[in-house]
Write a structure and sequence with these properties.
This protein has one domain (3-286): Na+/H+ antiporter like fold (Up-down Bundle). It is 80% helix and 0% strand. It has helices spanning 3-23, 28-36, 39-63, 67-77, 83-91, 96-125, 136-160, 162-192, 199-226, 231-242, 246-254, 266-289. Helix 1 (3-23) crosses helix 7, helix 1 runs antiparallel to helix 8 (162-192) and helix 5 (83-91) crosses helix 6 (96-125).
Length: 291
């Protein structure tokens, strides 16, 4: 089976299962509290859409790397985390409703922010104009069928069949974590295998990708602590700002439909290899030390 099958067909199914599993742990009141007091939601979106891209531009400027790699670093910052960040937030006992709300809203916002950020990056580092157009109807349908609908079904199951929901939740969190890890590995190596690039390029790029990841988690941590959001929301900020959607970044960089440059995908490939673990470790430390 070709690896493209995993990213095209299997990954959406796995994401749907993850969102259903997360819905099993939630109730309608969890979402009501988020939108009735939206301070944490607004600040989280600002961090994802503004602060992290600014950090990425700064790192790209000082990196001394080829222009393609610089643009690749910025592309990561333009792609907020999706189901992966939701799952990690759940495993670390963060605010899952806030995490899913951020994912749902930023999935729509990126239709407008990604084209602008990539245009700015390419004109800054290449002195050329590159336009990216994301398909609006298809993206809305993906949000509906991969995020909102499975989560709603999970919440509904929790409301109507509480005992069944508790039993399913007990086992599904392990199943979905394992499935996501398997599909994610195939997605990353699908892109990596397409490029004949020296290992030295990866080594030179890796420190800046690590700094971007750590900077995102630290900024989420300190901002949440500064405005006193509490432990659960602090964990959510750490994960949501620290974890980016590297699969989307790889697609934007390497797909012929978009930029079609495998060199630009290198930062996202590196990012996807370790951020799942770094976010879990950092989030665990926050969960243990923050009162």
């Amino acid at each position: 089976m070709e690896t493209a099958v995993f990213s095209t067909y299997v990954l959406p199914v796995v994401i749907g299962l993850i969102m259903f599993n997360l819905g099993l742990s939630l109730s309608i009141s969890d979402f009501k509290s988020i939108f009735s007091s939206p301070k944490s939601l607004i600040i989280g979106l600002f961090c994802q859409m503004v602060i992290l891209p600014l950090i990425a531009f700064l790192l790209a400027f000082v990196s001394g790397l080829p222009a393609e790699i610089k643009v690749g670093i910025v592309i990561i910052a333009a792609c907020p985390g999706g189901a992966t960040s939701n799952l990690i937030t759940y495993l670390l006992k963060g605010d899952v409703a806030l995490s899913i709300s951020l994912t749902s809203i930023n999935s729509i916002l990126i239709l407008f922010t990604i084209p602008g950020i990539i245009y700015l990056a390419t004109t800054t580092f290449f002195s050329t104009e590159t336009y990216i157009a994301l398909p609006f109807p298809q993206t809305i349908l993906k949000i509906l069928f991969m995020i909102i609908l499975p989560t709603f079904l999970g919440v509904l199951t929790r409301m109507r069949l509480t005992n069944l929901a508790l039993k399913l939740d007990k086992y599904m969190k392990y199943l979905t974590t394992a499935l996501l890890a398997i599909v994610y590995v195939f997605t990353i190596f699908e892109s990596k295998s397409d490029a004949d690039i020296s290992i030295g390029t990866y080594w030179l790029t890796a420190p800046f990708v690590v700094i971007l990841n750590v900077s995102g988690m630290l900024s989420g941590f300190f901002i949440a602590m500064l405005i006193q959001l509490g432990k659960k929301k602090t964990i959510t900020f750490v994960v949501e700002i620290g974890i980016q959607n590297s699969a989307l970044a790889i697609t934007l960089a390497s797909s012929k439909v978009f930029l079609g440059d495998t060199l630009m995908a290198i930062p996202a490939v590196i990012y996807g290899m370790f951020t799942f673990f770094s976010a879990i470790i950092f989030g665990y430390l926050v969960n243990r030390w923050v009162k």
